[in-house]
Structures are given as structure tokens and as C-alpha cells.
Amino acid sequence: MPPGHLRTDLSLLRQGASLAREFGFRSLEGLTRIAELIERSVYEPRSLTRTAEGVVFTLLNPPLRMGAFERLSVLWDGRPVPPGSVTLALPGAGGRRSCAEISRAAPVTIPVGQRTTVHLALEPPAAGPHHVRLELRSVAIPPLVWFEFSDSLSEEAA
């Protein structure tokens, strides 16, 4: 795990402890419920599927914080997936975009309310649950947003 992630995780822990001290544990329970609601509204449950090329999953793109991003990174079970191995299938005229092509000069816009499919070219993953972290660097503020989910692989329909 890169040092920046550990620093972020520790900062989040400190902030959680501070909230618990100031407002009580019920406030942390409420924040957890909100986080779970957001997770269910961004990632399409059970869409993590094994394909001939690796895996694919679907983002529902609710009207939260979507927009233009200058970088999109994926960690699969804690290991970074090379940007050239990550492709977005955007709805409509968006077409397919490799994450290696995304930059500040050529950002990707993730449309609100329309499904986006994320393809990861990976060695065939083992069965069972896997953890995915999607990091999006925005051209706006705050610069980095991320989303995590865990799910078990389904098999691609024939």
C-alpha cells in the first residue's frame, strides 16, 4: 500500500474518533449508513463479472459527484491495475476510453444517471470475494474522490 493511502486512512480514523468524541457514536453509525447507501447507489451490485479478458463491473452514476476527471485509477485486491489495462465503456457517444488516454488536457466525463462499464484486463482472477477501489482525480475541487466495494465474481453469460 502506498504511503499516501495509509496517511489518508489514518486521517479518516482520527476524524472518526473526533466525531465520536464530539457527537457520540450514533453520529458514526449514521455516517456509516450514508456511506453504505452511497456505495449501493454507485456500484451495481453483483455486476463484478469474470470475462475472457479479465473482469468487468458497472457504475450506476447517480447524481452525486460525477463530472470531468483527469485520471482514473483502479486497485484490485490492493494492487494497482496499470492504466492501459483499464477501459471505460461510456454510454451514448462517449464510446470506449482507456485510462491511459485520460489526462488534464483530455479528461473523461462520466455522465450522470447512465451506466458506465469498467473493463479490467487481468490474469484470470480466483473465485470468491474481491475488493475494488476506484480513484478519480477531478479537474475541480476536491481533486481526489474514491469509491470502494467488495463483491464475488459472477461468470460471464455465454
Total of helices: 2
Please summarize the sheet with the most strands: 6 strands, mixed
Number of strands: 11
Cα-based radius of gyration, to the nearest Å? 17 Å
Q: Approximately how much beta-strand content do the residues carry?
A: 35-45%
Q: What is the string of SSEs from the N terminus onward?
A: HHEEEEEEEEEEE
What level of helicity do the residues show? 10-25%
Low-confidence stretches: none
Sheet/helix structural class: alpha+beta
Morphology call: globular
Please identify, by name, the CATH architecture of the largest domain.
Sandwich
Q: Give the spatial strand order of the biggest sheet.
A: 6-5-8-2-1-11
Distance between the termini: 36 Å
The residue-averaged pLDDT reads 80
Level-1 CATH class name of the largest domain: Mainly Beta
Oligomer: single chain
Can you characterise this structure?
The protein is of the alpha+beta class. It has two domains: 1-42; 45-155, Immunoglobulin-like (Sandwich), CATH 2.60.40. 25% of the residues lie in helices and 37% in strands. The chain has two helices and eleven strands. It has helices at 3-23, 25-42, and strands at 49-50, 54-59, 68-76, 79-81, 86-90, 95-98, 108-109, 116-121, 129-138, 144-152, 154-155. The strands form two sheets. It has a six-stranded mixed sheet, with no helix packed on it. Strands 3, 4, 7, 9 and 10 form a five-stranded antiparallel sheet that branches. Strand 3 (68-76) and strand 4 form a beta hairpin. The longest helix is centred in the first third of the chain and has 21 residues, at 3-23. The chain starts with a helix and ends with a strand. The mean pLDDT is 80.
